[in-house]
Automatic annotation (TrEMBL):
Keyword annotations of the record: Biotin, Ligase
Protein name, as recorded: biotin--[biotin carboxyl-carrier protein] ligase
Highest taxon above the source species: Bacteria
NCBIfam families the record matches: birA_ligase
Gene3D superfamilies per record: 2.30.30.100, Bira Bifunctional Protein, Domain 2
CDD domains from the UniProt entry: BPL
Reaction catalyzed: biotin + L-lysyl-[protein] + ATP = N(6)-biotinyl-L-lysyl-[protein] + AMP + diphosphate + H(+)
Gene Ontology cellular component terms for the protein in this record: cytoplasm
Length: 246
């Protein structure tokens, strides 16, 4: 371990059902990262099963974040930017990576990683899964989802989970410090500069309807801004699908 943020815990497990549950069990005063080489019962957004082939990355960071509860969700952008930082540092190929609202990292336009935030009392858990060596089949995903990809086949480089954890933990610590000192504005701008399909047509799927429009970025709270025929829509939560014709 060449680098690690001071005051942050690091736990490596051979196997667990969920790094989210394991991180919650290890929660203390200091932020702590929990990585597992095998994860048997993890879920992603909306309770979807998260596939975890050996060699892929599954980790959760548990922390007691400063600031108001309603601003906790901004850490999804902090985490996505930190993950991109780590991937660029390890591969040396910045052009490969882009960001998809609200919390995915893409590689060559395909889904490489997902991030899941969960609040429990005064705790925030940030779960991160990355397809380092293998990706799920397109058939296992919801129709219209961005096609998955793994880092090995898309970059030609094999990255060990522990190496990614070290880079990610340091990058997240640095970005968290900046978030507290500078506010969200700088990271908001940086996230948009790396966002996939900015200024292009997308589809936002809500619980009862779909809205099509131009992706105009995110606001100061991280909500999606969608330009539609009815005007600018602000969407705090939605599933985003790309208009491949766009």
């Amino acid at each position: 371990m060449d680098v690690w943020p001071e005051g942050t815990g690091r736990i490596i497990l051979a196997e667990t059902d969920s790094t989210q549950r394991a991180a919650f069990q290890h929660a203390g005063d200091a932020p702590t990262w929990v990585l597992s080489h095998v994860q048997s019962g993890a879920v992603g957004r909306r309770g979807r099963a998260w596939q975890m082939p050996v060699g892929n990355f599954a980790a959760t960071m548990v922390m007691r974040p400063a600031g108001p509860v309603q601003r906790r969700s901004l850490r999804s952008f902090t985490a996505a930017l930190a993950l991109r930082d780590a991937l660029i540092s390890l591969t040396g190929q910045p052009a490969l990576f882009a960001l998809k609202w609200p919390n995915d990292v893409l590689c060559r336009g395909r889904k490489l990683a997902g991030i899941l935030l969960e609040s429990r009392e005064d705790l925030l858990l940030i779960g991160i899964g990355v397809n380092l060596v293998a990706a799920p089949s397109q058939a296992s995903l919801e129709q219209g989802s961005v096609a998955p990809v793994d880092l090995l086949s898309s970059s030609g480089q094999r990255v060990a989970p522990e190496d990614l954890l070290d880079q990610l933990a340091m990058a997240f610590s640095e970005r968290e410090e900046r978030l507290l000192k500078e506010g969200f504005g700088p990271q908001q701008a940086e996230w948009m500069s790396g966002a996939a399909r900015l200024g292009e047509p997308i589809v936002a799927r809500l619980a009862q309807r779909e809205i099509s429009g131009r992706f105009d970025g995110i606001d100061a709270d991280g909500a999606l801004l969608l330009a539609t025929a009815e005007g600018l829509q602000r969407l705090p939560a939605a599933e985003i699908y790309f208009n491949e014709a766009g």
